[in-house]
Amino acid sequence: MLEAGAPLGQSGDGEGRGSLDGASSHVLSRRQLLMGAGSGAAVLGAGKLFGGGLDRLVAERARHIRQSATRTIVVGFVGPQTGALADFATSNNFAISAVRATSGFSKGFRTGGQHYDLQIISVDTQSNPNRASEVAKDLVLNRGADILIASSTPETDNPVAQFCEVEGVPCVSTVVPWESWYAGLGGNPLKPTQKFDYNVAFFFGLPQFGDTFIPMWKRISTNKVVAEMFPNDADGNAFRAGFPPQIKAAGYTPVDGGAYPDGTANYTSMISKFKSHDCEVYVNCPLPPDFNTFWKQAAQQGFKPKIATVAKVLLFPADVKALGPLVNNIATDAWWSPFAPYKSSLTGQTAAGLALEYQQKTGQQWTQAIGSTYAAFEVAFDALAKASDPRDRAEVAANLQKMKIESINGVLDFTKGPAPGVALIPAAGVQWKRGRKGKFTDFPWAMFVVDNSDAPAWPINGDLEPTNP
Amino acid sequence: MTYANALVQGLLLGGLFALFACGLSLMFGVMEVINLAHGDIAVAAAYLAVVLVPLTHIPAVWIFVLVVPAFMVGGYFGQRLLIQRSLDEGPVTTLLVTFGLSVVLENVLLEVFTGNDQSLNIGSLVSGSFSVRGVILPYLSIMILGAALVALAAVQFFLSRTKTGRMVRAVADDREAAQLVGADYRHLFGIAAALASGTVALAGLALSMYTTVNPNTGPSYLLYGFAAVVIGGLGSLWGTLLGGMVLGVAMTMGSLVDPDFGAMLPYLVFLAVLAFRPRGLFPKKAIA
Asked: What ipTM did this prediction achieve?
């Protein structure tokens, strides 16, 4: 019994532990209960002298603990702190500590004539979907979570969302293409009419990759032949099905490099194919190590597309560091940056202010996951604070569904989405270039906004340059 | 031209696989240990290099000067303190111990370095190449093949030309007889493990230049190493180079048909060799 109650996962840094210690007064009250029960059992073992009296004692203690716990709302956060997806989560601990420092989260809120404290418990999926499901279950059943937030890829978000829909727990997902998330819940992204009561998500949709990439291709003079490197996995096959029609409509000719298995060690045949078709545009959605291998071999074997737009890789500085100088002028998509004109609904802090705080506190280069993680907490806070009873899961979930909020990740409108419960955010075209003076660009390699076709509010701060001149 | 190029890339790739296979072959040839942690040891070496390069300011290409000796020492003591004990318990225990070592290594790396992909950055060398009649020869691949040739030649020289090397072979051939003439087989096993560990450390460095590594990369390259050993012939050092090259060529030529076929063909070759020449293409009774 004690094992079942023990925390399954926790974030690695001091902040995460802080949350657990913080949780102790409320969630661990359960532990006190168990300890009470344990000592009770010991007494019982000594003899059944106390009989029903002890049971009553335990029950009273439990009620007392429950009463004091009702005033604390627990927000559970599920992310891939370690494992293959850890790149996505490097800034999560910071984002969570920034959220905790806001007055809304540190002081709590008042609604329905009652004051509520807020608590954040952050847990790690180890990049494993099965574990994501387990930790979600643990958060809700054992640690009293009233609302869950899941961030970073379908491998993290889908198991959590599925669990929440079944259990009737409000859940906010982000950094997941909405189609994957929607399909994961059992909906059909092609006919998105089904409504999921307890789940909402905010992020891009698959067509937005094209909406971001194609305007950049158009600005570089090429022969309009596009090399497609799509692996034989879920994302790769989704791109293979959805991307070519969009490319052809824009007047480009796709050349499919073939459905290669993840982890391929040598890309000679694909590179030969791209070279023989004289591809001058390159697009992909590989696993990061595979792109690293491919791009090195492409450089060795003389495949030098004029414009390379990549999805799923080079989203974060760590990925870029592993590739080194070969990363110069590769373009990708961004969902958040310090350059975006967004503000926190909790404090009014700007995106730039938040990114600067991250850099000063951690000494690390900003990453775009800071904004999405922070914004997910804004969404959760708004839904809770506007409920007459924040412990009423149905009411909180209904608040999520009808929310429109100006967050640090832009306007999130869950009422208008391409599917029920989806808020689309714009994607900006960015390129990795050598850093230059500036708060957010003074690094060996920095992300510059070069195209804002899909995100007109983002100011452009770099020139779109050919990946290979 | 496409075919010639794919053939050459495959042969060059064989160098990387041979580096992985060499140590496996040695461990099996000398003490009949199948080391399931082999791939993870390579990855651990890559991580050590990733840490050492910025600390020591030694260029990544030369970092093997520190990493390989460190792993040879580690290999010797790993053999004496861990593998030898399990060897005394029988072959299944050894298999389980190396499997356990693999799990422990992967998780320690995950804990210390997170799951981020790491790569040894060798600057412009990574993208450089020259071409001969349309066949592309990347500097990095040539360097890796060169390292494999040097490593194999060095191990070969050690085993056939030095006194200790000859004793290692004697112990491998007939342990009791070698012990009768005073060979300390535990020490000699340790030396063989040091050589295996040194070559696989080199493989790990090569791998982290060729692509990226993360804590879970090891097992897939362990498989390539195994396949190369089986194709080349168990216990045969130069056979592993040939085995690696057969694998590499099967991979690149198969990919010309279809990328999935490129992933499958090496294992079809592997199965065919097992079925028709179970002792490999270059079988040897003893090592070297």
From this structure: 0.90
